[in-house]
Sequence to fold (91 residues):
Amino acid sequence: MVSNLLDEKSKEDFWEDIAEEYQEIREDHYASLQNRKYLSLQAAKERGFKIEWAKQPLPVSPPFIGKRVFADYNLERISEFIDWNPFFQVW
Fold:
């Protein structure tokens, strides 16, 4: 993307392609809105998610409140359990 924007020869074509792509996305989005059927607020409330709190188990109290520090913990052992995919996807 950056090289296309820095290159004076391809910059205009790049902007035109982006504008066309976004126009198509807008048109698709507006077309999808035409077929939607909305419920009234009352009907939505009637169909809403209902929780029967009396049937739910009571929450468990945590074993401690505050922070717990693990000093001198083997980081190599911890790294075996880390899923690095989200880290590298964001990076």
